[in-house]
Amino acid sequence: MTAVAVSRGWTPWLLAGPALLLFVGIVLVPLAMTVLLSFHDWGQYKGIEPVLILKNWREIIDDSYFHEMFARTLRISVLVTLIAALLGAPEAYILNRMKNPWKGIFLLVILGPLLISVVARTLGWALLFGGETGVVNKALLELGVIEAPLPFMFTETGIVVALSHVLMPFMVLSVWAALQRLDPQVENAATALGASHFTVLRRIVLPQVMPGVLSGGIIVFALAASAFATPAIIGGRRLKVAATLAYDEFLNTLNWPLGAAVAVLLLVALIVIIVGCNRLVERRYAQVFQ
Amino acid sequence: MSFLVLEGLTKRFGDQAAVDSLDLVVEQGEFVSLLGPSGCGKTTTLQMIAGFVEPTSGSILLDGRDLLAIKPSQRGLGIVFQSYALFPHMTAAENVAFGLEMQGVPRAERSQRVSETLALVGLAALADRYPRRMSGGQQQRVALARALVIRPRILLLDEPLSNLDAKLREEMQIELRQIQRTVGTTTILVTHDQAEAMALSDRIVVMNKGRVEQIGRPHEAYEKPASAFVAGFLGKTNVLPAAVEQRNGAAVASIGDGSWPLPAEASGRVTVSVRPEKIAFIDQADCSLAGTVRTRIFQGNHWLYQIDTACGLVTVIRQNAGEMMPAEGAAVRLTWRPQDMTVSPAGQDGRI
User: Given A185, A195, A290, which is nearest B85 (Cβ)?
Assistant: First the structure.
């Protein structure tokens, strides 16, 4: 082998080196440390003890408190994903059929929220529906439509509604991208063959944008399951999800090992679900879209 | 009775008339081509027949019924799109079956008709293949089968061969013509390729800027073009300026140093177009034009000449008959028969 060939073999590593180092340094090492931390012991008076035991994991597996927490996280994420798909996909389709300049204006309206902090957007919901002082509740109460304020704060419904709103743009963008790849003549072709408008949507458009809906679903699901700010503001400490639970263990109870175990479990569960779904999508559509 | 009648069909986009009062009568079983450069309104015409574009005014009658009153999905027309517009998530057979499904054809009959039609276009073996895994020619056949299987009253073809390479296009032209003869469906083809239009159609409608320039049989339109535009668009032509004067009671056109008796009525300054293959070399004659050979290209079965004359560059095509031909730089005289000239008013440029 010549010197040139050797240096060629190393070139990719050298080029990727800086990024690789950064990745190892700030992602892999802390992650490994968190995993390690989840096996350590912790006591109110002794603090963290660097031993390898399964105490935290056993606690999560045995205690129904944690089961409820993870079940709630899963329930919320699934609901948010479904709502985002049911509303976001038609939204993207309608948007795609609009003419300029409306198309641009409404695209901005839909994507605009991404420019605003999640905290600000969630607080907006709290201002609208929070207790008796929320604007919408107040109006409805005074109009006599309702007798008690609609429960929103500290409810799962509240979290689902606010998260769906926060994560909707990701679904719209993903479906939008899929729609761009659609041959506009395909709808005409189906119409000419005698299909009604609804049939065209169901049999021709939907199957073709399904990969977009599914990949949007994966993004929304992942973000919903690991969301912190929205559940923290709407759910508070009364209605915890996995992410806020981990936060509380770290910063309030100071039981870092237990918090680490919760965080690692959330991560593993997410990876299993997402990789599983992705496999399913790829196998289902490989033949058609390769 | 006439099968398809377009009457005063007009489509305006703002001030621009994409199609300007088009009249066309198509008989049952006929193969008609709408031919013209891009932007001449041929595709808009097709889309108005299909129902994807609403005409500004005018009427379309199919078999005596007003087609414009019928929804696009109920017109029962077969359409082959330029992009083929196949359903990518369905196999070839599913694509072809879709139209029958929409018509509510029972399953058994459906699968029989699908396999019959796929066999007709020569794709029986690829029924279970997805479009992405087919070549352009194969996709084109699926699109054709999908349009034919519903036994359409009219088959509309929107530049169906323009995405294929030259060799495949020629093969598909022959096949398309054979299939159309076999099933006997009235067909309207939109194309910008004059060779394709001439090879396939019973009649050609030459369009320019939203208007019909000429409707006629391919041979007729080629030999007797109605305008300099048609002469220039259908095949190659030479456009020469001429002055018409009366001599002994007959009109005579002076072109360069030669003069020709005129076959048609004309006067003053006119434009004459002559096809390159109609021009011959001659030693000395009245009806001839002097020139010098600028370039000579040998193309196997014929020679292609560019001749410098007083009227500009003239293209001449001569059959390779195994004779000695004038070399580059040689002084020659060009001649053609009076009936080979198409005369149009001056200023009307026939070139595209």
Answer: A185
3-state DSSP assignment of residue B58: strand
> What are the chain B neighbours of A190 within 8 Å (beta carbons)?
87, 98
Q: Do B87 and A192 touch (CB under 8 A)?
A: no
> How many residues are present in chain A?
290
CA distance A287 to B136: 18
Partner-chain contact A194 B79, CB within 8 Å: no
Rounded Cα distance between B66 and B73, Å, is: 15
Span B332-349, average pLDDT: 80
User: Was domain B4-231 assigned CATH 3.90.640.10?
Assistant: no
> Which ipTM did the prediction report?
0.80
Strand order of the β-sheet with B331-335 is B280-282, B331-335, B289-298, B302-309, B312-319
Peptide bond into A101 cis (omega under 30): yes
Prediction pTM value: 0.79
Sheet containing B211-216: give its strands across.
B78-80, B154-158, B186-191, B31-35, B203-208, B211-216
Cα angle vertex B51, ends B115, B33, to 5°?
70
Whether B166 has a pLDDT exceeding 50, the answer reads yes
Q: Which residues of chain B form CATH 2.40.50.140? A: 236-345
Give tens-digit pLDDT for A204-255.
999 889 889 998 999 999 999 999 999 998 888 888 999 999 999 889 888 9
Closest residue in chain A to residue B100, using alpha carbons only: A193
Contacts with B99 from chain A: Cβ below 8 Å: 193-194
Between B83, B89, B146, which is nearest A183 by CB?
B83
CATH of domain B236-345: 2.40.50.140
Which of B81, B88, B102 is the closest to A288 by Cβ? Answer: B88
Distance CA B125, CA B149 (A): 17
Q: Which of B22, B21, B6, B4 is nearest to B64 (CA)?
A: B4
CATH of domain A64-288: 1.10.3720.10
Q: What residues of chain B lie within 8 A of the CB of A205, using their CB?
A: none
Q: Encode pLDDT of A1-35 as tens digits.
A: 455 555 678 888 899 999 999 999 999 999 999 99
Q: Is B284 on the interface with A (CB under 8 A)?
A: no
Expressed in angstroms, the distance from the first to the final Cα of chain A is 38
Residue A70 has pLDDT above 80, yes or no: yes
| A193/B99 Cβ within 8 A | yes
- Tokens for A86? 């049911």
CA distance A246 to A264: 10
| Cα radius of gyration (chain B) | 24
pLDDT digits (tens, 9 = 90+) for A54-68: 888 999 999 999 999
Location of each CATH 3.40.50.300 domain in chain B: 4-231
Tallying the residues shown for chain B, one arrives at 352
| The pLDDT of residue B348 is above 70 | no
Collect all residues with Cβ–Cβ distance below 8 Å to B230 and sequence separation of at least 6: B206, B213, B214, B221
